[in-house]
Structure prediction request, 814 residues.
Amino acid sequence: MGANDFASLPHIGESLKRKEDARFLTGAGQYTADVFLERQAHAVFVRSPHAHANVNSIDISAAKDMPGVIGIFSGKDIDGKMGGLPCGWLINNPDGTPMKEPPHPILAIGKVRYVGDHVAVVVAETQEQARNAAEAVQVDYEVLPALVSVADAAKKASGVTIHEQAADNQCYKWALGDKAAVDAVFATAAHVTTLDLVNNRLIPNAIEPRVAVAAYNRANEEYTLYVANQNPHVERLLMTAFVLGLPEHKVRIIAPDVGGGFGSKIFLYAEDVALTWASKQLNRSIKWVADRSESFLSDAHGRDHVSHAEMAMDKDGKFLAMRAHTDANLGAYLSTFATAVPTILYATLLAGQYTTPLIYIEVDAWFTNTAPVDAYRGAGRPEATYLLERLVTRCAWDMKLGQDEIRKRNFITQFPYQTPVALQYDTGDFHASMNKAQQLAEVDSYAARKSASEAKGKLRGIGYSSYIEACGIAPSNIAGALGARAGLFECGEIRVHPTGSVTVFTGSHSHGQGHETTFAQVVAARLGIPVENVDVVHGDTGRVPFGMGTYGSRSISVGGAAIMKALDKIEAKAKKIAAHLMEASDADIDFANGEFSVKGTDKKLPFGSVALTAYVPHNYPLDKLEPGLNETAFYDPTNFTFPGGTYICEVEIDKATGEVTVDRFTAVDDFGTIINPMIVEGQVQGGIVQGIGQALLENCVYDNETGQLLTGSFMDYAMPRAADFPNFKLDTTCTPCTHNPLGTKGCGEAGAIGSPPAVINAVLDALGPLGVKDLDMPASPHRVWEAMQRGSTTPTQQPQIPPLTASTQGRPTA
Ligand code: MCN
Prediction:
């Protein structure tokens, strides 16, 4: 079935209410913490209070005899018995040598490298007893100087060595593009615009923190791990093959209802491994529930780039070449996909929506004494979009062009389009989304709104961002050639039951995205059966054949495509059964609206009768066909999908306090064919909120001397709240993806990718008349006020303003 035929099926494009919400809204959800196993004990991790220290000794003598204590394990207990956490993506330096891959032990061996590093695990009858005993574990630390900021790491002057395998703390250097060709264009360009910026470090905060419950069964030597995770099969593969050396089939991983992940639950974490291993040592099931402070310290963080970018233009503002350099903070150890984020997922997006013919990008990646940094909603693509869209707006201002005009002059209009940074876009219509966004944002009446703001004594600014992203990562062979150590296909199984209802088993994982509804819509549409008759099973290696999980907005375009392939097989087999029953040849059978018919006759059979016949094969071509109607398919995409759009933000700024209010926010996205507009709108809203959160509120701050996390709770880490936003104006355009059978493009990260530069461009537009050219995220009242005071004055005339601290970076307290 072609993508156009698919888009016209019933249920496709219908805003059906989410099937899963019935259980979520009535308290019947089954989250990992809701799992209670027989003989369940509780684990608490002893974590490093220091950013960098030698561990001279660990004394458990007092702790081990405390009430309820069952076992205590530290680095010496696991040393030599298991591997460390693996990194799933190999990056090579320009000279072909591999990146530095220091060990990432499950429990620290000899040294701790960030505040929160796991030193020991205490297992006791109750959580309180485990916590008390953990506090009684005596660790003798010899504190070492810490290296915290990526800017300091890049200077190579700290004198700190975090891993002996990387004496200068550099993990890799990586580059993409033809430097000489780019430099030659810059040498003769009519105009060059430059920009320095920081992409601030973020801490993911899903509603449900990380949780795991592990059990070992002595009878069959099998382990079961319930865990809040986004890709259970990948977690199982990494844990068995790389860390514990167990046969894969002896471990079952179940990720039941998961209360959000945003990337932070893709990874294999040390706690999951420690629990699984300890469950056998102690012959007890063991539960660990992270508290929020632990999550702040030990979940993988996101972003943390320092970049310099330049655009060469002709006299009319046409982009001729771009070059950039980025220093990326990887934290203390390599998390599962950390190395791909500032390289493959970042640099390849730097063409954006524009025809820039030449691009050169260099990335230096550094270890620091901070929590590991890995994929967080958007993963590399928000960083690319922020850099590019800030640069493009700066180009507009330098060239005295409108933010819209410079974009329109440079938009790609011919597809497919081969970018100079490896990707080939299949479709898009960037003028369409820009035009629609401008209409919806009522940009024609912006001048009147600006005057009205000025009359109130406020500043008003407007900011544009035209983003593109690459979702549904990507052909396995290409990803493999680029360093991926895993495949990137998806698996789907369709089990048609004798009564014609269907269970779908998908390797994708839903942790808020509504797959139980949208995947059911796809199946119901194809088979012409009620959506209520389709159930979706995910997140269980014991029930789903295989899967690569959910990240990179891949689920509908890759997971859904696998389901479509399995449905093709179901349809082909069912047609043979129908042909037999209606005494026609296979080629004469049509299937539409849930009915099989014989071409040119009025003979018909409903889908349910054919399903029943497959399981009650009394009148059946048993010599040619097996009974049953159950098919599995694996789908490996031939390309990424490329959602894109234009976002327009209008802000008002209070001159007295520097407080920024987002007054209007308009987003027009192209997600190709849309299965469920309500769910897509929810995804976009959530993403925009996260993006504006980064732009205005959220910031992870470590003390630069000690490496202590200063924003380790919601008191200091400013999460966005509903009252921080206006109602967003959302709309879509549609150029269906050309290479998957649904025509869909991913929508799950778009909002977080497109929105930060729109907000900061708006803030800078408002502050421009005061001479402010630069401002890093988050544009907190303190920073904006500081920038306003500085304005166009020279540095020596600037008032002395204290540096930004954790307590001044959030929303105003008054
Ligand atoms: N969809 C659709 N039509 C389209 C595209 C998508 O109807 N053209 C639907 C899909 O069927 C699915 C939802 O929209 O129900 C999101 O689909 P997709 O864009 O394929 O993204 P994924 O399902 O793969 O979700 C991953 C993406 C990512 S990478 C992050 S991070 C993220 C996000 O989704 N984390 C989330 N959204 C989240 N939403 C919630 N509530 N919680 C998270 O942790």
